Amino acid sequence: MQSFFVSLPQAAVLWLVILVAIAVSAALVAWPPKAPVRPLTEAQADAFRFAGEVAVAAERAAATAVRRRDEWAAAQRESDAAWLAFDEADRRARETELAAPFPLMSRRRKPGENADRERYLHRAATAACRQRDLSIVQLNDVLAHRGWNPRLHPVVQERLLRSAARAHRQAQFEKARERELATWHESELAAEALRTLRAEAAAALVRAGVIGQPVADEQWFADQWTTTELPAMVKAAA
């Protein structure tokens, strides 16, 4: 009897191991066999290889699209800065124009006053050029007296200088605006090229049988973009 009770735990462990082995064997027998992978046909292999090549081209196009978008954003900032500069130059020019109807006191000029007026014009034009309110070409015209009368009263000279500064700032803004529109157009072309390449790669995978048929809607291709790759270009060309 003592031997029976001593060997009882060992027998229980043995039976438990046997039951676990039987359960594992039954599970392996009941597990469905894995279907063999069918090899790709020659047409599918070609389509899959073509899809890989197009995917590589799409990655390059994505980098180009990001670069074009950054260039457009930089051109937009330059255009905004040029507009603010033009708006300030226009405000200053209109301030001096308000004083134009008031006549200047006519008196006999002192000896050397014309030379003083000429020096004032040169100094004011040079300072305006340093502040980028005048171009180098405009400064050369002032110093050479091409279209500028150095004997005019300083008030009149100041009005003419501010008008010239407004014209210069306006020309700068127009150039910045043209560059912004050009970079926006290039960004749109790069985005369209990327969309086309990704759609072509998806179509190649469909032909290879790797993925199912996509939705026959152009919006499906637009959804393949992420927000970082395709910004909302809501600024229309003026």
Strand content: under 5%
What level of helicity do the residues show? over 70%
- Give the integer mean of the pLDDT values: 77
- Describe the largest sheet: none
Q: Judging from the principal axes of the Cα atoms, what is the shape?
A: rod-shaped
What structural class results from the helix and strand content? mainly alpha
Spell out the helices and strands N to C: HHHHHH
* DSSP strand tally: 0
Supply the number of structural domains. 1
The separation of the N and C termini measures 105 Å
Unreliable runs, pLDDT <50, ≥5 residues? 213-238
Tally of separate helices = 6
What is the radius of gyration?
40 Å
Summarize the structure.
The protein is mostly helical and 238 residues long.
Write the layout of secondary structure elements.
Layout lengths: L1 H29 L11 H57 L14 H18 L5 H8 L10 H55 L9 H5 L16
Helix pairs in contact: 2-5, 3-4, 3-5
